[in-house]
Amino acid sequence: MPIYLIVAYVIFCVVPLYVGIRNSLRYRRLLREIEMRRES
Amino acid sequence: MMLRRKNRVGVVLTVLSVAAFLGALWMVFGYAPREATMGDVQRIFYFHVASAWVGFFGFFVTFVTSIVYLVREERHWDIVAASSAEIGLAFITMTLLTGMLWARPVWGVYWTWEPRLTISAVQWLLYVAYVMLRGSVASPEREARFAAVYGIMAFVTVPLSWFAIRWWRTIHPQVVSGEGMAMTPRMVQTLLTSIGVFTLVYVTLLRQRIRLALAQDTLTALQLAQES
Fold first, then answer.
1. What is the pTM of this model?
2. Which of B13, B106, B117, B197 fits a disulfide with B24 by CB distance 3.0 to 4.6 angstroms?
3. In this complex, which of B94, B98, B216 lies closest to A30 when CB atoms are compared?
């Protein structure tokens, strides 16, 4: 299988996964911060 | 409280997106036939076109919601516009990178300054600037208004990019022409499935990004309330 094809499909898999995980982690961090501020 | 509510829709969308993505991968590598001229490297085509479609669609959503924001001045339209531009940019970045990887074995070069590619490069830079400019203006209302006008103007690159391969002499292939698609039925099915799957991934990511922006707004409001 051509190396260009493999690299292209790694990009197709990694980018949406990265965007999803990064936003999910940021969202959780924000929720924790909101909870902390509400409690204080 | 909305933020605390369990995100069942988000979980369902994520599971569906991952399953559909794996299904589309199977179609690309196990269902679609090997193209006669380019060989296996042509398989980049399916996700490359799907990714470009989602990028364009994302910018279209930004265009529409920016107009609605300017008319109504409601914060949630600005949030959708910003979120959609960010996700559209991620997909257009993938399109550019994988297009270069496809061009190298087929055209012999990673990049050439022909009309479609040049417009795509300008489009990418415009939306990178859009994302970077957001947050750099001190007043949130001014930032939203400025971004809305920018989002409307930057959208001109989408029809330009679409028609570039029809208006000018270009080496970029034309997927849909007046005579339909020059592909076998299995190739067309794989392409349409990929477009559907990428649209689902876009919806999942957009929803998640909107929730993130709403959480950020809640936190900012809390910070302001505690400071005053």
1. 0.92
2. B197
3. B216
